[in-house]
Every structure is written in C-alpha cells, then in structure tokens.
C-alpha cells in the first residue's frame, strides 16, 4: 500500500494523516444507528406484521428449489411456499439446508476464520494519550495481534455514559486463529498491550466482555 511505502507502516501513516484529515471534519459522529439499538427495528416489524406471518420458535430443516420459488420444511414438518428467501446464517449452516442440491456447493470452498471481539469499558480519565478518529484497521504486515479497533463512544456517543470510554477490538484472522482460543484474561492483556503501543491507557478496564 502507498501509505505503508511512504511512512514505513500503516499505523504510522494513519497517524501522520490524522491531523490534516480530521481538522476539516465536524466534531459530530458520521456513524448512524437506532437510538435504542437495531433490535428496535425488529420489534417494530413484529408489532406491525401479523402473527401468521412471523413464525417464532421454529427451525428451518430443509429448503427445496421449486419450479417457481422455494419450499421450506420447518421443525414441525410444516411446509411453507415462498417466492424468494433471505438467509442470515453462517455459510456452513446453509449448505445442509439444501441437501443434495448443488446450488450452494461452491460456498463450502470459501475460506473462513474464527475471530474474537473484545469490548472494554474505561473511565474517561484512563486515556492519557488518545488518537483522533473513531477507530483503525491493522495491516497484516504490522506486528499486532489486533486486526481492528473501534471507539464506540465516538461512533455512537448516545450508547456510552459521558464519563466512560468503550473500545471494541477484534482478533483472529485466517491462519492466525490460535489467539482466539486463549483464556479471556490473556486476550484482554494482549489487546491492552497492542493499544498501549498506539495510545496511552493508565488503568485496567472496569469491564471486559469477550465473544468468540
């Protein structure tokens, strides 16, 4: 990448560009979300749609391609006809639904990786040396365990108390997944070590949540 070539690393390049780029930006976040979370969209749809349309507590067991549309077999062997379907599942769970149908056969060849998400809450005064912006991604060429980190309190200020800071870091990439299997404490220490190479944090997090 050009930034890495000019500055020696992606992180150094981003640091060098921050002052110039952010000086022209508004102090307000450019990221948008629902005030009370994305779940409010689902809840609103559920209120508006008929109970006959929404089927809860049922698992789709099989999907069959028909001449026109699809037939879904759910957990009680009920058959549902559909003109089209939208699937929100990990790809490895999609293939068995179609049985011997080769429609999604190539999906199984898509490479995947296990990742961990680390959310940490700090008091506002724990950050001695912050960086501008709302997060960063890490190049594979960098000697970091993290792959990215987001400043949630900057992206969506309404989701975090004014006296707190919420950071969300990501670890794990293809062929480098062993870190995801470490104990929670080891993962937390790894993230803090990486962050302190970029900024200055003088306290341990008040709360940490790790999901894999």
From TrEMBL:
Pathway: Porphyrin-containing compound metabolism; protoheme biosynthesis. It catalyses: coproporphyrinogen III + 3 O2 = coproporphyrin III + 3 H2O2. InterPro entries: Amino_oxidase (IPR002937), FAD/NAD-bd_sf (IPR036188), Protoporphyrinogen_oxidase (IPR004572). Its cofactor is FAD. It comes from the Bacteria. GO terms for cellular component: cytoplasm. It holds the Pfam family Amino_oxidase. Residues 24-210 form the Amine oxidase domain. GO terms for molecular function: oxygen-dependent protoporphyrinogen oxidase activity. Coiled coil: none annotated. One of its GO terms (biological process) is heme biosynthetic process. It is an enzyme of class 1 (oxidoreductase). Gene3D superfamilies: Protoporphyrinogen oxidase, mitochondrial, domain 2. Keywords: Cytoplasm, FAD, Flavoprotein, Heme biosynthesis, Oxidoreductase. Its main location: cytoplasm. Involved in coproporphyrin-dependent heme b biosynthesis. Catalyzes the oxidation of coproporphyrinogen III to coproporphyrin III. Belongs to the protoporphyrinogen/coproporphyrinogen oxidase family. Coproporphyrinogen III oxidase subfamily. This is Coproporphyrinogen III oxidase.
């Amino acid at each position: 990448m050009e930034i890495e070539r000019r500055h020696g690393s992606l992180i150094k390049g981003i640091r060098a560009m921050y002052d110039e780029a952010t000086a022209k930006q508004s102090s307000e976040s450019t990221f948008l979300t629902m005030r009370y979370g994305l779940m409010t969209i689902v809840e609103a749809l559920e209120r508006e749609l008929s109970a006959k349309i929404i089927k809860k507590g049922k698992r789709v067991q099989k999907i069959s391609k028909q001449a026109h549309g699809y037939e879904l077999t759910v957990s009680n062997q009920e058959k549902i006809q559909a003109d089209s379907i939208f699937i929100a599942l990990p790809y490895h769970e999609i293939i068995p639904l179609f049985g011997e149908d080769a429609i999604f056969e190539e999906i199984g060849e898509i490479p995947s990786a296990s990742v961990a998400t680390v959310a940490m809450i700090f008091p506002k005064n724990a950050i001695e040396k912050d960086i501008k912006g709302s997060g960063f991604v890490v190049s594979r060429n960098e000697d970091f365990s993290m792959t990215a980190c987001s400043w949630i309190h900057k992206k969506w200020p309404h989701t975090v108390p004014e006296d707190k800071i919420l950071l969300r870091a990501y670890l794990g990439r293809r062929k480098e997944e062993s870190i995801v299997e470490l104990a929670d404490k080891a993962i937390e220490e790894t993230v803090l070590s990486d962050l302190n190479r970029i900024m200055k944090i003088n306290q341990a997090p008040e709360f940490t949540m790790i999901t894999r």
